[in-house]
Amino acid sequence: MPAPEADLQLLEDAARKAGRIALKYWRHAPRAWDKGDGAGPVSEADLAVNEALQAQLMGARPDYGWLSEESEADPSRLDARRCFIIDPIDGTRAFIDGQDHFSHSLAVAEGDRIVAAAVYLPARDLCYTASADGPALMNGQPIAPSGADIDGARVLTYRAATEPGHWRGGRLPPFQRDFRPSLAWRLCLAAQGRFDAALSLRAVWEWDIAAGSLIAERAGAVVSDRRGGRMRFNGPRAMIDGLIVAGSHLHRQLLDALEP
Description:
InterPro entries: Inositol_monophosphatase-like (IPR000760), Inositol_monophosphatase_CS (IPR020550). The protein is an alpha+beta fold. The chain contains 6 helices and 16 strands. It is globular and about 50 Å long. The chain starts with a helix and ends with a helix.
């Protein structure tokens, strides 16, 4: 079984190749359509990137499982010792609109834990990486979360998460809400301290957060589901019960402020 560092190099190489493919479509009016059932849009670029990633990654690691937003579900992944967890383009709406806030999110799970991760934003040439035993890096430089307090913290989340009903006593804590389309990037931004936390109170797909969760953890952030529990990956439903990612002090404050 390859070391996590070897898998990490494979992921980073594949992410950069994915970026070159995506940029050929970006701002060139790619064909796009809605997947239906509330699953959101998909573009021809998503599918082209997915095909290239699957060929490269599974070609290099044919005994690994495969879980991707843009591939048919394959239950055999549940029996694999390691599994790729991939979002070919995270932030597809932003990509279609010509924004540069989209990313490629690539991870390897061993059992239910992530052991290698890369998140790459090709339009910004930002590459976040981490392995289970190594540091979290952004373009080769170490990153770390902020030590912010909840009062005035900049929290990356969607608007509905600030509704009073989610918070104890109906009182929204005094943080500032911000947003970025790519959920994978939100975790990385919290990991590097550009924002103070990333928060979701609704279930999230594994492929959106697998890579970012390890990057944030290795940067020194506390990473949990919305109730403070450990995230477990490569599960049958491929979903996690929300997330809280922040420095240890702010993570505890957010968890304590939320309705259980």
